[in-house]
Amino acid sequence: MAKKYVYFFSKDKSDGNTKMKNLLGGKGANLAEMCTIGLPVPPGFTITTEVCKEYYENKKKYPQGLKEQVSLNLKKLEKTTGKKFGDKKNPILVSVRSGAAVSMPGMMDTVLNLGLNDDVVEGLIDLTKNPRFVWDSYRRFIQMFGDVAMEVPHSAFEHALEEVKRKIAKQKGIQDAEDLVQEALNKAVPDTAMDVEALKELVIAYKDIYKKHTKENFPQDPQKQLWYSINAVFNSWNNDRAIAYREINDITDLFGTAVNVQTMVFGNMGEDSGTGVGFTRDPSIGTNKLYGEFLMNAQGEDVVAGIRTPLPIDELKQENKRVFEEIQQIRGKLEKHYKDMQDFEFTIEKGTLYMLQTRGGKRTAAAAVKIAVDMVKEKLIDKNTALLRVTPEQIDQMLHPMFDLIDEKKSTIFSKSGLPASPGAAIGQVVFTAKDAEDWKADGKKVILCRVETSPEDIRGMHASSGIVTARGGMTSHAAVVARGMGKCCVAGAGDIVIHAHKKEMNVGKITVKEGDWISLNGSTGVIYIDKIKLIPAQVTGPFNVLMKWADEVRKLGIRTNADTPADTKIAVEFGAEGIGLCRTEHMFFEGERITSFRKMILVAPEVKKLRDAIYQEKDPEKMKRMEEEIQAPLKQYHDALAELLPLQRTDFEGIFKELKGYPCTIRLLDPPLHEFLPHDEKGQHELAQAMGISFNKVKETVESLKEFNPMLGHRGCRLGITYPEITRIQTQAIIEAALNVTAKKIKVKPEIMIPLVGHVKELDSQKKIILDTIATIKKDRKLRKLPFDVKIGTMIEIPRAAVTADEIAKSAEFFSFGTNDLTQMGCGFSRDDSGRFLTDYVNAGIYPIDPFQSLDISGVGKLVEIASDLGRKERKDIKLGICGEHGGDPKSIDFCHKIGLTYVSCSPFRVPIARLSAAQATLKENANTKKASSQNRKKQ
Amino acid sequence: MAKKYVYFFSKDKSDGNTKMKNLLGGKGANLAEMCTIGLPVPPGFTITTEVCKEYYENKKKYPQGLKEQVSLNLKKLEKTTGKKFGDKKNPILVSVRSGAAVSMPGMMDTVLNLGLNDDVVEGLIDLTKNPRFVWDSYRRFIQMFGDVAMEVPHSAFEHALEEVKRKIAKQKGIQDAEDLVQEALNKAVPDTAMDVEALKELVIAYKDIYKKHTKENFPQDPQKQLWYSINAVFNSWNNDRAIAYREINDITDLFGTAVNVQTMVFGNMGEDSGTGVGFTRDPSIGTNKLYGEFLMNAQGEDVVAGIRTPLPIDELKQENKRVFEEIQQIRGKLEKHYKDMQDFEFTIEKGTLYMLQTRGGKRTAAAAVKIAVDMVKEKLIDKNTALLRVTPEQIDQMLHPMFDLIDEKKSTIFSKSGLPASPGAAIGQVVFTAKDAEDWKADGKKVILCRVETSPEDIRGMHASSGIVTARGGMTSHAAVVARGMGKCCVAGAGDIVIHAHKKEMNVGKITVKEGDWISLNGSTGVIYIDKIKLIPAQVTGPFNVLMKWADEVRKLGIRTNADTPADTKIAVEFGAEGIGLCRTEHMFFEGERITSFRKMILVAPEVKKLRDAIYQEKDPEKMKRMEEEIQAPLKQYHDALAELLPLQRTDFEGIFKELKGYPCTIRLLDPPLHEFLPHDEKGQHELAQAMGISFNKVKETVESLKEFNPMLGHRGCRLGITYPEITRIQTQAIIEAALNVTAKKIKVKPEIMIPLVGHVKELDSQKKIILDTIATIKKDRKLRKLPFDVKIGTMIEIPRAAVTADEIAKSAEFFSFGTNDLTQMGCGFSRDDSGRFLTDYVNAGIYPIDPFQSLDISGVGKLVEIASDLGRKERKDIKLGICGEHGGDPKSIDFCHKIGLTYVSCSPFRVPIARLSAAQATLKENANTKKASSQNRKKQ
Description:
2 copies of one chain form a homodimer.
Chain A: E1 6-10, E2 13-14, H1 21-36, E3 44-47, H2 49-57, H3 66-81, E4 84-85, E5 91-92, E6 94-99, E7 110-114, H4 118-128, H5 131-150, H6 154-171, H7 182-188, H8 196-214, H9 222-236, H10 240-248, E8 258-263, E9 274-279, E10 291-296, H11 300-305, E11 311-312, H12 316-319, H13 321-338, E12 342-349, E13 352-360, H14 365-377, H15 383-389, H16 392-399, E14 402-403, H17 405-410, E15 413-415, E16 419-422, E17 425-431, H18 434-442, E18 447-451, H19 459-464, E19 467-470, H20 478-486, E20 489-492, E21 498-500, E22 505-508, E23 511-514, E24 518-522, E25 527-529, E26 535-536, H21 542-554, E27 558-562, H22 566-574, E28 580-584, H23 585-588, H24 594-617, H25 621-630, H26 632-660, E29 664-668, H27 682-692, H28 696-706, H29 718-723, H30 725-744, E30 750-755, H31 761-781, E31 792-797, H32 800-804, H33 806-810, E32 815-818, H34 820-828, H35 836-844, H36 861-875, E33 880-883, H37 891-899, E34 904-907, H38 912-940
Parallel strand pairs in A: 4-5, 17-18, 18-19, 19-20, 27-28, 27-34, 28-29, 29-30, 30-31, 31-32, 32-33, 33-34
Antiparallel strand pairs in A: 1-2, 1-3, 3-8, 6-7, 6-8, 9-10, 9-12, 10-11, 12-13, 14-26, 15-25, 16-20, 17-24, 21-22, 22-23, 24-25
């Protein structure tokens, strides 16, 4: 028996099904599948991908038997439709389309309306009473066939079209009709402005062009038309575009393309015909109800062209109740079969319904969640499938206000060079200083703070703003990190904006925005508009919580949050965080008046250190005595300032512990360099001097002496605690005392003290000793035999040296928390504040697939994380491993953390739900892979 | 038979030898050894370390038989010396000293003059006719015995001594004698000012103190004195000091201490007695000739006290020819036995020579080299031993001028907080700007350039200076690196200096140094003096070259140099470099007028980039056309500036290739961030604007726009080449054209093009493509089928990410060069310019044993190097691995590079000889370890 090269499909009968994708291509298999479940698909047949393969293997010769099989199937098609190929009275028209097993959109060729010729045109006009449509179809067919099958240059047809249009323009009396550029001409004379005569003229012109280029007449024989088109599709498999596409997308394991020959149906054959699109559920809110729109006596492109307004699908009940009910039935069939919301196209030809296409429907975030949850209730899918139906990005969308899509589309862009640094949308009036932001907000205004970059001094102003824009800095710049922590919209590193803060204006090219002007930020895309766009509020609804609960049942990773205040902690716990993975103590120092106490400490600390060093080195006991007297005054100031901070920090920790309700809290000791806390401009220094009652010069000198060339690699992290052990001591005291106070109120606490920026185990040891000594002193003072809670001491792994010596460090550390921001900075050598300038080039050039600050650079920084995890576990089997960089809220990075077996991820409060879902998906994907692998193994055995 | 607990030694007979260190302790074994080779050592005996062990194991009881053995040996001692213990007429006095197998200086106790009592004192006065000496010895003995053996507080004796001195002071009529502080009192009444009466009084007072604290009289029985002292020595083994010392120095495998009881001899027993020190060769220049000095009728401390001036040892011939000749004989014996230059002490007691001690003698660098080479000629040692006799630091000393030691000791220190950044010594007049340095030098003056820190703009000023001082920056700061490269003395990061450049002065505390004042720098110690110290020139003599040749025969590591100019290359090749491991192309841009062309390029490059990006993103063809017109002018300026640089670079490379005479040359493409090349002060910017004929604002704006928060992690290295591919292209062109030109002159060339700051293999690939394309164009232009030389393309491994993904990178790179400066910066997270502030704390706290910029942090950064080497070789078996950071010239780091099998190290020209010796020593040490291990294995089998 000859091999089967052609597969027939029609409503009642189908040779193929959806599993035959490799043989029939994606489109062919889908059409077969639709027929299998009894959908009224326009009948047709598919020539297999094997034919394509053999065609190329045999020097472009078709395998034996193909001609016969095509011929047989054509006959079957005529029989099924009751129409005839090339018949003047009742002609059958077909489309010829490519379709490989993997979708290669736009890469290969298509021919529509095949079967038309001079005779059939006449017959079709009789049938449709729509000569304009028929002539338009004919001219399009000639052009498409010529272009696709015979390589007639596209431009030749375009030129002829232009000529006709120019003539019409002249007739319409349009000035300079001869000289209009193409764009203007198309505007003055759209395709729809061509009447039957013009189209007839065009058909003649097109035929001439065809002849001129092919040296033969346009073929009137449909058989010839068909075979030329089939050839064209198979040849298009190896055109440059298609080869390049497969190379770029790394598609290597395909035989070739299939060819689909399908009856064409027309919705414009009179008032009993029509066309429409439908969704099996409401794609914007997810309600389980047919949704869609239709037009009678129209083709799909009429809807697209926007000439007529389509009607809501419910009104089809009035037009044709039978068809409407058929669609309702199909809706049920589709969901039962595909187990997902479907988006479908249909055409009604003379009262008969045809389904042209069905596919998974696009939906909003809210709809995605509702549909997934509802379908579980309806027993269409199980919980795990539901979890995979919603993307983490959709969860993100739901947690923030978004712009009205249509309103946003109409708005004028100010800048699109910024990074989507913190999601959501915001509108407000522009201000250029943190102070102004606070003042305007106090006056009841909504503001957007725009700065070159932000620094810790701006925190209060950032709090007062609806959104933040910076001209410099990347995804983990100060602005971005703080904004995400606050759940505030932020566009960072918009490099094309030039900010003139002194003039209180900014510009991109010639567009200038002044103080008080309204702008709108899209923190999810990074685009800034010079309009006030309509906002749609966040939607955290019932189904959302149901889905999150399911995610928690599945995931293996713990989810913690990065939170520095009781308020943030509260939000995060409500969002499902199971503890704090990173509590940055320095942010506490900026609130209210505490910055003053903190600055007092900084202003005297370097002097204390200098004198201490001198005493350490001095050998003369007389001099030493004198120096020890000299150090008393600054030492007192230093201790006094620290003593002022103690109760403030203690209160903060108490608040946080209370909100955590027994969840663990990883507290990082002071990390940033001291100069970050001092004003860098002379004005601020003058103010500080006055406020402190010291000389301006003293302030200026201290600021100067603390300046660093590369602060990221400078005097920060545990290095501060080594130089100034009192800071470590006072922070430990605040933590332990707060924990004791909260425990006394019958609330459980689990403090975990984390030493930042450790590179060498001895750094950790030195700090650990101070912490243990401080705890011992507290126990002694309070006469406690042991603390009524457990304290863990661990470290950040954020320096490459720490990663490769993690076995040594694990001897001392009870837990590791990967600070992937710094690990990326030092691992890749990218300053997060500067790399914005070239990282875009890098991502564009494909050096990194994505900004490594946004999504963990798995092959590089990830390798360091893996090395450290392995070494850590080797030394201490049960070591707790977490990640607390910005990557803790990134789905891809979370997937990686799951794979290498970390204990938890920690992210900003607003990303906690995203992390919960991502962690669940990571588990599900792993399970699927394991299943696949084991079933493959079974097969092999 | 009872165990042997006591070992006797005397000139003619010795129970022990030098191999019995574990049993007899270091001192005991050495005394035995000296006797064995027939040296006239004052006889005595050693109680073994086993006694100490058993003493502690048996609750401080001595093993049986010890008393008897000591008693027997005492008898033997009396017989040998012909003197008697406690005898009034002919008493024997002994010392009792501790001595473990490992030297623990000052940690345990010693008693001298044991055997003195009220009777013996009288007898000894008769013998010596020196009552002052005898009474002084007696009071010292009482104090030492009381303190050491009976725990009488030291302060009690001190107090009594003070009383006596105060009385003398009053007698001398010194004002306020009662109220003088101790320091002043000791100055007014030194020990030598006490006469016999005063000393007698003191003896009485000391005896009273002794009785008061011990409740018994000072023991007159020498046996009792002896056993009390032996107890004291054994007990001192476990005193707090000794335990702490062993802990700190990780000494764990010792039994205990031995006790040495040795006859005391006195050089002050009359004119036929004397004392002296000798060297078997001249320790300052190495001549093979007895060297030393002596004093007749004196004790060792008389020489130290400086009351009498010792005579050159040659004059001993006149004093006592027999003894002189005996010393000459001993000199020969010592060298024959110890195979090294010895430093010995001797005493002549009544015409009899006694050798008290001999040990390896300290020597100057020049002497060390000469002695090592001479001894090989004399067949005393072999070449390998000679190579191990000279330290790399000594080689360093020889290559630079040094201060006259005595003159330096007398000079006033200005600052000692600086780092020894570039060795040697320099004197000069202080200037504060690079410009002044050039001008003053032009006027024929010697200058020292003092700056807070240096930048590339200062290069010419640095060249004009004799030495450089900076107040900030570490061992690899700009100043340090450049100075070492120039072989110029530099003290960097002298943190206690406050520089007021505008006032043209600087100060440390109250000492102010003004412009034009003379200062002296010791670049090997980091000390700065406010005097003009006498300089001793560098000494690269014949033996030096002989030793270097031997080093080359032994070492396995290749030695290359870091050189950027033909002049440096010449020096390095003369010093033995086998190629350039790092040729930094950017340094070339600072010379002469080229900085102007380079700055032209920088000032227009960002504009070109901005326009290019905009064109890349623009979709509107009309706008694109306009932008492409707009870019033409800046693009031309950009290309013009680059074209100006091409011939200059080409000429440089030609010069370097010529000097290399066929050795390979690794050329690193442009590395530093562009802003380093622009002036940062407004004055400089004004000048630049004028020179370029553009507006000041344009210059200022460019400088501002290029500023970075963390330039070390910013837009530099290959990131420049990715943004500005033309820079890579022009540099490649210069290299290849230069190589062609030099080849045409029949000189071989081996260019190796090195891409800096690669973190991801795709960065390397992108640059490699540009290089290969450029080479292809040159070949096409010159109609060459292939280049007449080999070009290798490789990369720096200086980013941690590159280290852990080195297997990927090795797919593309033909060689790796470890840039350990940057690898340390990023691996440890230390900015080399900022870490000076806390790294000292770190080294002091023992976190790092040594500044990781000075000597490779082997356990951390070294691990990254090892990981990368292993991964690299896994992928490409024959990959060439080098190191070109500052560590390439550090002996410990070189030893590590040898161990992990690198191909070569590269260091600054002046360190090439150091590297040659270090590499040879690394091989020798490895061979020794292998031998040791295999012999241990043999033993086990």
